[in-house]
User: Fold this.
Amino acid sequence: MPFDSLGLAPALVQAAARSGYAAPTAIQAAAIPAILQGRDVRGSAQTGSGKTAAFSLPLLQRLATERPQASRRVRALVLVPTRELAAQVGETMQGFAQHLPERLKIVVAFGGVSINPQMMSLRGGADIVVATPGRLLDLVEHNALRLDAVAMLVLDEADRLFDLGFAEELGRILELLPKRRQNLLFSATFPSAIQALADGMLHDPAVVDVQGEPDTAPDIVQRVIEVDASRRTQLLRHLLKQHENEWDRVLVFVATQHAAQTVAEKLYRNGIYAVPFHGDIAQRTRTDILSQFKQSRWDVVIATDLAARGLDIAQLPVVINYDLPRSPTDYTHRIGRTGRAGESGLAISFVSASTEAHFRLIEKRQGLRLPRERVEGFEPVEVAPPLVDASGTGGIKGKRPSKKDKLRAAAAKAATTGDAPETND
Ligand code: AMP
Assistant:
């Protein structure tokens, strides 16, 4: 199916062609016509499947064809959970919008940097605002923008925005929006609890689910290596050296900011260009690190889950889970950083005796069972610690814990490995 059969204006069809898109992806083919018709949409598709263009192209078209207003009022609001994603989505939209005959003003706003330039750029209004929730509310409080003319709302990585960390801010923002508007919710994952919340704000939505369609499933090889927790950095170094020529960029996920710092420092001291990336690093530095990583000036980024969502790093061949993610959902997002836009990718998870049960839980949710590998010289010697009911939720005293209790206790233990969870904004 060609792009020009979706109802898009010729300028936007050309914009897609200039971005090198030969044909729409499955999510684009399904969502674009529904959005152009003005319908609400709930879209689930694997990360990297072209979701940004799926909502950006029809959104730009709707705004461009609407009657121009005397003053620019924000007509479309795109909410995203991380600053990096805000910058990325804003950039993609700007790229498409520059081909339109009508000039649409797009402002990107996120926290961690001075609010003043964002307030300045909102002077005279804007057509589209792409923002993280916290900074958006700050801007509203500073009277830098109003949201009462928003006709289109996009929640990108929607499930994350409904999460506890954002729920309150999201609720406050929704109250500032007109009741009548088009809602577009996109995510790679919609856990069932979130799905109910999402459906509550959608009116007769077009439900577009292209998860698992053979042509949309990214080509990611998943591997699991058994290693003792204490030897993971050495194994990481070994693998990086061994694959030096094939792996030009590697993204390594750890559980805490502290781990990101220490692992990156150890690698750097051993001659590997590794840099930490987490929420405690100044925003300007975070932005620099990402662009330098994309330009291959860093070989390895050691990140917390801050980097797990939505980031589009072309030709990222490998993602390594040094620490396992807290949840199966986070696992999906992490490994989705590789294998993007039709490329193939490799995701390696380190598993030790004490995290094996947690990984089994992740596999179970994915409907997977991966073979355990060992690397010569790094064979594990640790045995699983006796199960303790760390969470206080599994098992009743005196009762033999069930298999589920054991898995839960192990998962809780694996998840409580240090710092407080990362927040994005
Ligand atoms: P996203 O899922 O929006 O992060 O997009 C993932 C990647 O796919 C980005 O690098 C896009 O430029 C690319 N992409 C989006 N749509 C298409 C398409 N129709 N054909 C080829 N690549 C695309």
